[in-house]
Design a protein that fits this description.
The chain is α/β, with parallel strands linked by helices. Helix content is 42%, strand content 17%. The chain has 15 helices and 14 strands. Strands 3-2-1-4-5-6-7 form a seven-stranded parallel β-sheet, sandwiched between helices. The chain has a seven-stranded mixed β-sheet with strand order 10-11-9-8-12-13-14, with helices on both faces. The protein is globular, with a radius of gyration of 20 Å.
């Protein structure tokens, strides 16, 4: 039994969902402590607070959005400055945790403070996320505008941390790797237990998911399909014809996803990959000004397993054409390759000491650093 520390980005639920898949696969063999900011902490805390899996809240960098739901880069810069101001204190606190608990391995899912503390303390760490595709994938098939954004974003990703033993890139698409990009393993998305155990069937309803907001035009287009549409992410409220609005419930959402005819959503890697694992065609609407999602949307179209269009270009005709070709999209989905958990676990186990007994935890808890940026 080894001891593992895991940290993740707190923005959205994709990082926490990926980490949960890891925890459920490893918790019987190893002792795990999670360090989670923002949305990730809110998602994981109720699942692990009274279990053998430790969880502590961590300051984290947050996206900023304007009133129309677009990514607000000025607001993000302000958030970044606040986060960087507190980063040395967070790294120091985590270094104390590492020296006290002596983990055998650190895993980070696009979170910069824990890998810095691991390097300071001489503990090996592995990077497992989606964002490192910007540093490792051959992106020459992208349109020039997106290639330029990818180059810029890749510089930011590289600044998060360096020195990992290995990089695991979890994605629903698999272009060639760049030459000389280091020790990199491509895997599919990491399936949480509910998705891995779901029994897919093709029902007559659509599932729609947005993180914050969506235009009235999109809602009207969904209503015009005549299908039962189960909308998540906008909160529970009164139905509008065949559109029903649901609070985010993991179990109910997965049941609805497993039984739907297709998914309409933003272009987040984790959710798109989970849908494809279940054999569902995806119609993606990238968040405005979110270039990572635009790149995901490009590769979704390129795979032939779904369709994507920008919010500003969207029309009801796009959605109706997508629904008329569902069988064609489904025939192109390689559901087996989409499940990346077994391959990711094989990589991680190469970096864990064989036959190691975990060191008992000491009873005292060190004070948590300032969470103003969480």
């Amino acid at each position: 039994m080894a001891k593992i520390f895991i940290s993740m980005s707190g923005e959205g639920r994709g990082h926490a969902t990926r980490v949960r898949a890891l925890v459920e696969a490893l918790r019987e063999e190893h002792r795990i402590t999670l360090f989670a900011p923002g949305d990730a902490f809110s998602f994981l805390w109720p699942l692990y607070t009274a279990t053998e899996v430790g969880i502590q809240r961590l300051p984290g960098l947050r996206f900023a959005y304007d009133a129309s739901g677009h990514v607000d880069y000025r607001g993000m810069l302000k958030n970044l400055c606040a986060y960087l101001k507190g980063l040395p204190s967070t790294v120091g606190w985590l270094s104390d945790q590492i020296r006290r608990e002596r983990p055998d391995l650190v895993i980070t899912d696009f979170e910069p403070s824990l890998p810095r503390a691991a390097k300071r303390c001489g503990v090996p760490f592995v990077s497992l996320n989606h964002q490192h595709f910007l540093r490792t994938y051959d992106l020459r098939s992208l349109p020039r505008r997106l290639r330029l954004h990818a180059a810029y974003m890749g510089t930011i990703v590289g600044a998060y941390h360096s020195g990992q033993r290995e990089t695991i890139v979890s994605s629903f698409y698999f272009p060639p790797l760049r030459p000389n990009c280091g020790k990199v393993t491509q895997v599919g998305v990491l399936l949480r237990p509910e998705v891995a155990e779901a029994e897919p069937r093709t029902g007559a309803h659509l599932v729609a998911y947005w993180r914050r907001s969506v235009s009235e035009q999109v809602l009207q287009a969904l209503a015009s399909t005549g299908l039962d549409v189960r909308v998540y992410g906008l909160g529970a409220c009164h139905p509008r014809g065949k559109l029903s609005f649901h609070a985010v419930s993991e179990a109910q959402f997965v049941r609805d996803l497993a039984g739907c005819c297709a998914l309409v959503c933003t272009a987040g890697n984790q959710l798109v990959g989970e849908a494809l694992c279940l054999g569902k065609a995806v119609f993606a609407l990238p968040e405005p000004n979110n270039y990572e999602q635009e790149i995901n949307a490009h590769f979704l179209r390129q795979s032939g397993a779904g369709e994507a269009v920008g919010m500003s270009e969207f029309s009801p005709g796009h959605l109706h054409r997508f629904l008329s070709r569902l069988d064609e999209y489904r025939s192109r989905i390689d559901t087996q390759r989409m499940n990346g958990l077994p391959a990711a676990l094989a990589v991680l186990r190469r970096h864990l000491p064989a036959g190691r007994t975990a060191v008992p935890a000491m009873p005292e808890t060190l004070p948590t650093p300032e969470l103003a940026a969480a």
